[in-house]
Amino acid sequence: MSFKKILIAIDSSPCSLHGAKKGISLAHTLNAAIGLIFVIDRSREIVNIDLDITPQQSESILLQQAEETMNQIIKMYEPLDGNIEISKFFPEGFPKDEILNTAKEWKADLIVMGTHGRTGLAHFFMGSIAEFVVRHARIPVMVVPQHI
Q1: Integer Cα distance of 40 and 42 in angstroms
Q2: Among 5, 123, 133, 138, whose Cα sits 20 to 30 Å from the Cα of 108?
Q3: Which residue, among 143, 144, 140, has the nearest Cα to 109 in the 3D structure?
Q4: Could you tell me which residue ranges the UspA domain spans (predicted)?
Q5: What is the pLDDT of residue 39?
Q6: Is the CB of residue 140 less than 8 Å from the CB of residue 111?
Q7: DSSP for 59-83?
Q8: Which CATH class is domain 5-145?
Q9: Rounded CA separation 78/49 (Å)
Q10: How far is Cα 7 from Cα 39, in angstroms, rounded to an integer?
Q11: Helices (H), the chain
Q12: Cα(9)–Cα(19) distance, rounded to whole angstroms?
């Protein structure tokens, strides 16, 4: 199988940054197009009437954080030659669903994502986006542990 389009899921966590580094490196090696996806998770939205934070302001803050993170990753890991195409995706919703939806719509050949490697109760209560994506993806998924 040839990987021509690699979708790399990112957020603001250190494990995500590590996964992005590995995914971008792989894309450069394979001369594959890169899709960076940062899902705007509405469940993390902060609305506080007492502080006059409206849903629109909160959404704007989340989008700004996503764009800053994505630009930081591109700046840190983009090749100097700039020959690789980078597409940016900022869907809103649940990360596990939006990663799969974007991979399908963009026709990705591979999904790359970092993982915290939680086990036990932390995994039970918080779940694992990476695990869900691995179980439900119709294409290969490369999961990068935080401590590699």
Answers
A1: 6
A2: 123
A3: 140
A4: 3-145
A5: 93
A6: yes
A7: HHHHHHHHHHHHHHHHHHHS-SS--
A8: alpha beta
A9: 41
A10: 13
A11: 14-30, 55-77, 95-106, 120-126, 129-136
A12: 8
Residue 84: both structure tokens together:
């690789």
Quickly count helices (H) and strands (E) in the chain.
5, 5
Give buried/exposed letters for 34-44 (b at 16+ CB in 10 A, else e).
Answer: bbbbbbbbeee
DSSP 3-state assignment of 85? coil
Question: Does residue 55 have a pLDDT over 90?
Answer: no
Q: Which amino acid is at 47?
A: V
The residues near 51 (Cβ < 8 Å, ≥ 6 apart) are none
Give the separation between CA 115 and CA 19, rounded to whole angstroms: 8
End-to-end, the C-alpha distance of the chain in Å comes to 25
What length is written for the chain?
A: 148
Report the DSSP beta bridge partners of residue 113: 9, 143
Q: Identity (one letter) of the amino acid at 123?
A: H
pLDDT value at residue 14: 83
52: left (phi over 0), alpha (psi -120 to 50) or beta: left
Domain positions in the chain are 5-145
Question: What angle (nearest 5°) sits at the alpha carbon of residue 99, between those of residues 97 and 104?
Answer: 95
Contact 108, 3 (CB under 8 A): no
